DNA sequence: ACAGGAATAT
DNA sequence: TATATTCCTG
């Protein structure tokens, strides 16, 4: 009997090891963040889809992905547990019709989370359009008191910043003003103020760069009046990776660091271009 | 009134 | 520090 027991245990351990290894391999084989773009860029622009009566259903938000991922992980982790995935165990949750205030929402920093448990507005990492249905989340139990609910602080994720840089470079610094940038970025929930604030910092960064002798791309100063008709169409394919080559043969410019990066590098990158003071 | 941008606040 | 808000200007 003991023999059998140990045999079984042994076998299980082996299986677990094998699983762990396979998981590791699987994880290692996962694409990097910057290799994955489809989610943030709808294959069919919303307007077009609407015009052709294509169901907007296929749109998925980063939220959906995150939740699905969490569920998967939870399910796997709790394979032997009796608990359902944590997402649904919080309260006697009514089956979320479409979208619920999801604590797993990423890319958000809710300043008031501590003081106030209100889940209010949601901003996802990058483009998320055609989600009028999805964004019906907020008022779940919107505190009647505060009619003016605060938006959570926007976090300029690498993706968002990339989009920002793309648009700015496309417009040229002369035409790159908050409103236009905001429109061309076409990121749901992104406000002019968000962009203005970011732009201010970005300009400081550019100033510092030029002060340090870095030659900036000519494209930055080109004055392409922005096309009004593109207003509802984000610069679909990343509009132009500027700065890989500069006109005077400079091997790099200030934007090189933004062409691609992983999450791991994010903080470093942030430090690189953010601290424009001193 | 509106938008941009620097200054300032959180 | 990063982002938001205020304040002034055109």
Automatic annotation (TrEMBL):
The keyword Transcription applies. Residues 1-23, 118-147 are annotated as: Disordered. Keywords: Nucleus, Transcription, Transcription regulation. The keyword Cell wall biogenesis/degradation does not apply. Its main location: nucleus. Coiled coil: none annotated. It holds the Pfam family Myb_DNA-binding. SUPFAM superfamilies: Homeodomain-like. It is found in: Nucleus. GO terms for cellular component: nucleus. InterPro entries: Homeodomain-like_sf, LUX/BOA-like, Myb_dom, Myb_dom_plants, SANT/Myb. Residues 156-207 form the HTH myb-type domain. GO terms for molecular function: DNA binding; DNA-binding transcription factor activity. NCBIfam families: myb_SHAQKYF. PANTHER family: HOMEODOMAIN-LIKE SUPERFAMILY PROTEIN-RELATED (PTHR31442), TRANSCRIPTION FACTOR BOA-RELATED (PTHR31442:SF21). This is HTH myb-type domain-containing protein. It comes from Kalanchoe fedtschenkoi.
């Amino acid at each position: 009997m003991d023999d059998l027991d140990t045999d079984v245990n042994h076998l299980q351990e082996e299986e677990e090891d094998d699983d762990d290894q396979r998981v590791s391999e699987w994880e290692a084989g996962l694409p990097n963040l910057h290799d994955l773009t489809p989610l943030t860029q709808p294959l069919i622009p919303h307007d077009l889809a609407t015009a052709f009566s294509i169901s907007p259903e296929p749109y998925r938000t980063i939220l959906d992905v995150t939740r699905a991922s969490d569920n998967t992980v939870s399910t796997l982790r709790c394979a032997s547990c009796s608990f359902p995935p944590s997402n649904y165990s919080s309260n006697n949750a009514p089956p979320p019709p479409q979208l619920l205030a999801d604590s797993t929402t990423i890319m958000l920093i809710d300043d008031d989370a501590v003081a106030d448990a209100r889940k209010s507005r949601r901003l996802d990492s990058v483009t998320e359009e055609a989600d009028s249905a999805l964004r019906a989340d907020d008022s779940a139990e919107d505190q009647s008191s505060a009619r003016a609910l605060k938006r959570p602080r926007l976090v300029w994720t690498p993706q968002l910043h990339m989009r920002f840089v793309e648009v700015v470079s496309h417009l040229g610094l002369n035409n790159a003003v908050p409103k236009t940038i905001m429109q061309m970025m076409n990121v749901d929930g992104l406000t002019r103020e968000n962009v203005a604030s970011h732009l201010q910092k970005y300009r400081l960064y550019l100033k510092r760069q030029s002060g340090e002798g870095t030659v900036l791309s000519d494209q930055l100063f080109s004055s392409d009046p922005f096309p009004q008709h593109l207003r509802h169409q984000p610069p679909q394919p990343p509009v132009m990776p500027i700065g890989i080559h500069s006109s005077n043969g400079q091997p790099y410019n200030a934007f090189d660091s933004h062409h691609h990066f992983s999450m791991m590098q994010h903080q470093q990158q942030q430090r690189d271009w953010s601290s424009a003071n001193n």
